[in-house]
Amino acid sequence: MGLNRQDMGEFFEKLGEKPFRVSQVTKWIHQLNVSDFDQMTNLSKKLREQLKEKACIKSLDIIEDQISTDGTRKWALGLEDNNRIEVVYIPEDDRGTLCISSQVGCALDCSFCSTARQGFSRNLTVAEILSQIWLATRLLDEEKKPGRKITNVVLMGMGEPLLNFDNVMKAIDVMLDDFAYGLSKRRVTVSTAGVVPAMDKLAERHDVQLAISLHATRDELRDDLVPINKKYNLEKLIPACQRFMEKRSPRSRLTIEYVMLAGVNDTKQDAEDLIKVLDGISVLINLIPFNPFPGSGYKTSSNNAVHRFQDVLMKAGLITVIRKTRGEDIDAACGQLVGKVEDKSRRENKFKVPRIGMNT
Ligand code: SAH
């Protein structure tokens, strides 16, 4: 499950097989959703036996499977070490987006995100990242409802994808591979809290969509909300955004995510500051109404505040959309993915807030 074209090529070379086996097997696994080598009928019996000896195609355990009144579907998936991750499918009129996780928990400690409360355990393997798409494809097919397809993948679930760089890049290789998921590079989005050196590396490695979780335009506030800002502050992050976009086609846009927190970052002045900070960068702004969770200490900005904020940005010519909150009734919205993590960073000890009411 976790081999990109190059890795699988090396695997088959060692077996003395020709390179075309890569496309054949990739297609069986990722397009035809086959997990049994015996079903791979265009492989010789001998090769199938060899594969059974040397490899296995294993997915993740489904621990929970919930569907929201708005059609959003969320799975909690179990990993071999008893950790859990969450995956969300979000259907829209013209597309179906799968929001996948890249790490077990998250180390970044963003103050408004419930995943942060779980602490960090480990990076997901390439296979675990791709299994989420593999499994969701199979389970959506089983619904036998028209239009329930995965057209977009966003790495906006649990974890910071750019801190699991190599595995995420390999997983993207397979997402874009025509013999696997064949997604267009414009339909795969990596979301980062601003790991600056990895943004530069990403620009060289993959031409996928990038989203920056900005949320604040002053270091003092951003240090609080997105603590990785203490390492890569705005003076480093904004030029990194510029460098990233210089390597992209002039028509492409950087997505800026901005969570709307009442009384924290949602005034007219905040919107004006955002315009200044983003000056000269081609952006699409996503305003995300804060999704509350017990003990967060934050409140969602009022509808009025969100629309006023959007108006200011739009008047300045910045394309700004208000992200619709989806799957709230099943705790599937942004920042509500918690899974169950064995915290290696012992972050939980730092919080005195009880975790009652969260979907653990
Ligand atoms: N670590 C990556 C991806 C995971 S978070 C990143 O930071 O971008 C995906 C998005 O959800 C981020 O923009 C994040 O800031 C936002 N988010 C986290 N918690 C949220 C909450 N409670 N309400 C709304 N958005 C939230």
UniProtKB/TrEMBL annotation:
Q: What domain of life is recorded for the organism?
A: Bacteria
Q: Which GO terms describe its cellular component?
A: cytoplasm
The protein's annotated catalytic reaction(s) are: adenosine(2503) in 23S rRNA + 2 reduced [2Fe-2S]-[ferredoxin] + 2 S-adenosyl-L-methionine = 2-methyladenosine(2503) in 23S rRNA + 5'-deoxyadenosine + L-methionine + 2 oxidized [2Fe-2S]-[ferredoxin] + S-adenosyl-L-homocysteine; adenosine(37) in tRNA + 2 reduced [2Fe-2S]-[ferredoxin] + 2 S-adenosyl-L-methionine = 2-methyladenosine(37) in tRNA + 5'-deoxyadenosine + L-methionine + 2 oxidized [2Fe-2S]-[ferredoxin] + S-adenosyl-L-homocysteine
Q: Which cofactor does it need?
A: [4Fe-4S] cluster
Which positions bind [4Fe-4S] cluster?
Answer: 106, 110, 113
Q: Which PROSITE patterns match?
A: RADICAL_SAM
**Gene Ontology biological process terms in this record:** rRNA base methylation; tRNA methylation
What remark does the entry make about the cofactor? Binds 1 [4Fe-4S] cluster. The cluster is coordinated with 3 cysteines and an exchangeable S-adenosyl-L-methionine.
User: Which keywords appear in this protein's UniProt record, sorted alphabetically?
Assistant: 4Fe-4S, Cytoplasm, Disulfide bond, Iron, Iron-sulfur, Metal-binding, Methyltransferase, rRNA processing, S-adenosyl-L-methionine, Transferase, tRNA processing
Where along this sequence does the record place binding of S-adenosyl-L-methionine? 159-160, 191, 213-215, 291
The EC number on file is: 2.1.1.192
* Residues that span the membrane, as ranges: none
Does this entry carry the keyword Ligase? no
Extra information: Reaction proceeds by a ping-pong mechanism involving intermediate methylation of a conserved cysteine residue.
- Name it: Dual-specificity RNA methyltransferase RlmN
Naturally occurring in which organism (per UniProt):
endosymbiont of Galathealinum brachiosum
Record lineage: Bacteria, Pseudomonadati, Pseudomonadota, Gammaproteobacteria, sulfur-oxidizing symbionts
The protein's gene is named: rlmN
